[in-house]
Write a structure and sequence with these properties.
The structure holds two protein chains of two kinds. Helices cover 32% and strands 34% of the residues of chain A. By secondary structure, chain A is of the alpha+beta class. In chain A, the strands form two sheets. In chain A, strands 4-3-6-7 form a four-stranded antiparallel beta sheet, with no helix packed on it. A three-stranded antiparallel beta sheet of chain A has the order 1-2-5, with no helix packed on it. In chain A, 22% of the residues are buried. Helices cover 71% and strands 4% of the residues of chain B. Chain B is mainly α. Chain B has helices at 10-34, 37-54, 71-78, 82-97, 105-128, 133-157, 163-173, 175-195; strands spanning 58-61, 64-67. Classes of the chains: A alpha+beta, B mainly alpha.
Chain lengths: 151, 208
Amino acid sequence: MNAKRGIGILALLVLLCATTMPAVPAHRAFVGEVVDNEVRLKAWYEGGDPINEAPVKVYAVDDGKDVLYLEGVTNEDGFYSFEPEPGVTAYNVVVEQMGHRAKMNIDLGSSDQPQEAELPLYARIVAGFGYLFGLAGAGMLYASRKGQKGS
Amino acid sequence: MHISDGVLSLPVVAAGWIITVALLVITLRWGERDKSIAEQIPKLSIMTGAFFVASLIHVSVGPTSVHLILNGLLGVVLGVLSYPAMFIGLTLQALLFQHGGLTVLGVNTMIMGVPGLISYAVFKTGYKRNISLTALGALCGALATVLAVILLAVVLVTTGEEFVAVAKLAAVAHVPIMIVEAIVTGFVVAYLAKVKPELLPVDLGDKR
């Protein structure tokens, strides 16, 4: 009974944390591009905060190999622009800040960029709890089997 | 606080895995010795769940954005088992939120888990010296954040970043997180001590 009450209290605390949580997720890092006559990039964290004043490395892709083409730093809004090398249409861009890394491949030759399909955030949270319950269940099943054998 | 895939060099990633696997084995053995892990599964899963979603609560500070970690809280409530709990939480975060990455799980678990274990030790020692549980909880919450920042800076030094610069930047950015973690951990500890002291790793016994 006591154990049940304790679990109830903990569950309530978690629920409280979850409901007071702002709807803005954090800390996945992104980088995206806008093409004009130069390539303009923006780097940001999940939730929209720009990755500002962070080192940027631009690699030109030559025969499937990355060759360092340019190095720079994003501005305070997370933007960075560079002029593409004549004749080279594929670039890999890497932005890093305090251990976070965002990467993207740019292909100036094709007009449509493939977009990664992704589950909405709430679905990912639910999925995480699903895994946890599964793990807990498996652990308890194992424990009860062990207990039965012991008795 | 999470380091992404591909930032660190191979030896650092390998060292992180070795430390984490060793600590997982040790903490699981240790946890089983004190009290059956099976009995603690409900508590473990709920705390892991809290840890899992905590990293979505973020604050933007200056040039970066930081999020809650809750490693101090897990350390205080789960004791040595906080290490495996954080390993599971971080795995789920890497898979579902792309926070950090699978190859660097070892390093990330070390950065957040070791401070959790230290907070647990501080909590136990402080309790024996009759320091108020709420103050201790708050201290442990803040301490775990500070230690995680230091470990993060140490790990990032291997990528060629300068220790003092990174540590300063990360420490300043994490001041609000430290305060929030101190409040949350202090509050939870005070609440548990009053309502459900068995959930804390110290024996409150006659002192209730």
